[in-house]
Amino acid sequence: MSLILGYDPETLREQVDLDACAARLAELGEQRSLQALLERVWLLKVLGRLEDALVISEESVRVARMAGTRKDLLRARILHATINQWRGAYAAAEHELSTCAAEAEGQGWPSIAAFALQHRGKTHFDAGDFERARGDFKRALFLRQESGAADAQIESALLAVDAADRRRAQQAAS
Question: What SS3 class is residue 54?
Fold first, then answer.
């Protein structure tokens, strides 16, 4: 059962089952495997516990650097950047996501590049730069389509492109 129920069309944030997320967080407890750390970061983020999420995300980056693969490290860094995005540290999030996207594309890992670009687009979106957000969402959509991503991932990219288009139109009209 997925904890994500959908995406808010105005904010592009995940809509989640808060009770199920809290239960899953309790179930994970203090596990220290990289997968458990990454899951805890995401759960803390969607539950709004951003300071806790930041601490655990920094730990997950260290663990991935010491014991994970390059892909693991990129995923941990991307998740860490999303915490900065949600905290309003847009410049830090954008920089981290840009380096992750470039490395993933350079390595030929389109799904990870798309993940980074989708989140960089969300960072631009939150910062009010809807033109750059749209560009990142379109690139993420292209990479996901080219790599045969799941329908849900393609749909989330399409939703993001539509949201950026709506916001650009609203901005132009005001």
Answer: helix
pLDDT of residue 174: 84
- Model confidence pTM above 0.90: yes
Element housing 70 (H / E): helix 70-86
The domains of the chain are located at 4-173
- Distance between CA atoms of residues 58 and 103, nearest Å: 19
Please state which architecture CATH assigns to domain 4-173: Alpha Horseshoe (1.25)
* 74-96 core/surface letters (b: 16 or more CB in 10 A; e: else): bbbbbbbbbbbbbeebbebbbeb
Quick one: which of 59, 56, 26 has its CA closest to 41? Answer: 56
Give pLDDT tens digits for 10-29.
Answer: 999 999 999 999 999 999 99
pLDDT at residue 71, as a whole number: 97
pLDDT in tens, 110-139: 999 999 999 999 999 999 999 999 999 999
Beta strand pairing call for 4-7 and 14-16: antiparallel
pLDDT at 7 over 80: yes
Long-range contacts of 29-34 (CB under 8 A, 24+ apart): 32/63, 34/60, 34/63, 34/64, 34/67, 34/68, 34/72, 34/76
